[in-house]
Amino acid sequence: MTISQEHNQQVKQLQELIKGIDYAMLSTVDDDGSLHSRPMYFNSDIDADGTLWFFTSASSHKVFEIEHHQQVNVNFSSSTQQRFISISGIAELVKDRQKIQERWQPELETWFPQGLDEPNIALLKVNIKKVDYWDDKSNCHAKTISGL
């Protein structure tokens, strides 16, 4: 199997694991080294290359933290399906208006009432480095997807 085929299969596996989970916990590192976690709406926005996307305000504290420490962790869980996913990666802020428009969904108006006209609207791009997951199909044994 070629690397790109294996990569595509890993991305598809990750897409299946997080399918139907609308929220994730994003953990960042503050300047004092402490971890800071908050819920983030996830609209199933994962690229074919395995990149995760979240909407945010460019002036939020999490963006400040990411500008100083790009390493993040994103956790998804579905207790009803006994599925738990932990993703470590590198985050960056993206202010590209075209990308923001491409990824916009009406559900986001809950957090951005002015829609695409919201001041400071931006995207957090998370490049995945490693995925650990537990699910009922694997009898809750930890499994890892690396090299995404």
UniProtKB/TrEMBL annotation:
Residues 10-146 form the General stress protein FMN-binding split barrel domain. Coiled coil: none annotated. InterPro entries: Split_barrel_FMN-bd, Stress-Dev_Protein, YdaG_split_barrel_FMN-bd. Gene3D superfamilies: Electron Transport, Fmn-binding Protein, Chain A. This is Pyridoxamine 5'-phosphate oxidase family protein. It comes from Anabaena subtropica FACHB-260.
